[in-house]
Amino acid sequence: MVVVMNKTINTMYFSPTGTTEKIVSGLAEKISEKIDREIAIKNIDFTLPGVRNETVSFAGEDVVIIGVPVYAGRVPNVLLKYLNSITGNGALAIPVVVYGNRNYDDALIELKDILELNGFTVIAGGAFIGEHSFSKILAQNRPDEKDMAIVSDFANQIYTKITTQDNMQTVAVKGNRPYRKYYMPKNEQGIAVDIRKVSPKTNDNCIDCKLCVNVCPMGSIDDEDVSKLNGICIKCGACVKKCPTQAKYYDDQDYLRHKHELEVGFADRREPELFI
Ligand SMILES: Cc1cc2nc3c(=O)[nH]c(=O)nc-3n(C[C@H](O)[C@H](O)[C@H](O)COP(=O)(O)O)c2cc1C
């Protein structure tokens, strides 16, 4: 039997430190390798704010692999408006969430619900692990080779599902409804602390290359004075991890305590979870 897949493979991701991009692109590449003809993967990287002003809509012949990092156990709230504006028109979707080895809580079910409300048919979903945005040691260098082997296996399963089922079955994923509240760090007394106002400082290593200005997903770093913020900071880690001279750092005690607590408390390796 010759299996024909007349689908266009699309990827969409928000990925300030690149781990979500690695999983989503890896999945798309592995699926397209199975298809017996040259196909181009269409990609929308919506990490930068300008891209999120453009409207996006799909059609029935599209397969869309869409990924976001897990922030506070949920889909990053700054993305909700954009995500809700994407139209599926019956396209098949594979939601992917990538988390920093603590937990993905209700992020995957939330992303799946958003996609279904937008008119997508959700046929598979996955939660993967990426190096934590706050840390250089928590889930260090993940996704790694072992993760990418699981990505490859997941791609095979997705390909099989798409090419063998006439009536695409939707998938159930792990998570609670109603969703749990946004996860909040606690201080030494066990009281929840709000680190939303925390933002990175800039030290003398800064060579004013403006890279941070160009990678900030909120477009918040002042072009003239890169130590100044003109908008909100979501603590995504892009400016800190991408700075070529390690000039961006945090000194907020609650933030640093939380980071340490995560590094100590969630050191045991977690493994990807696939739903299909
Ligand atoms: C504001 C914020 C909140 C986060 N919350 C969680 C969380 O609840 N659970 C978790 O395991 N990781 C959490 N992370 C870590 C990221 O989900 C993880 O590092 C992810 O791989 C980052 O994706 P990216 O490389 O595509 O930016 C959080 C990161 C940030 C910036």
UniProtKB/TrEMBL annotation:
Keyword Lipid metabolism in record: no
Gene3D superfamilies, sorted: 3.30.70.20, 3.40.50.360
4Fe-4S ferredoxin-type domain: residues covered: 196-226, 233-253
Record flagged with keyword Nucleus: no
Recorded GO MF terms: FMN binding; iron-sulfur cluster binding; metal ion binding; oxidoreductase activity, acting on NAD(P)H
Cited Pfam families: Fer4_9 (PF13187)
Residue ranges occupied by any Flavodoxin-like domain in the UniProt entry: 9-159
Protein name (database record): 4Fe-4S dicluster domain-containing protein
Keywords carried by this UniProt record: Iron, Iron-sulfur, Metal-binding
UniProt cross-references to InterPro entries, sorted A to Z: 4Fe4S_Fe-S-bd (IPR017896), 4Fe4S_Fe_S_CS (IPR017900), EFR1-like (IPR047964), Flavodoxin/NO_synth (IPR008254), Flavoprotein-like_sf (IPR029039)
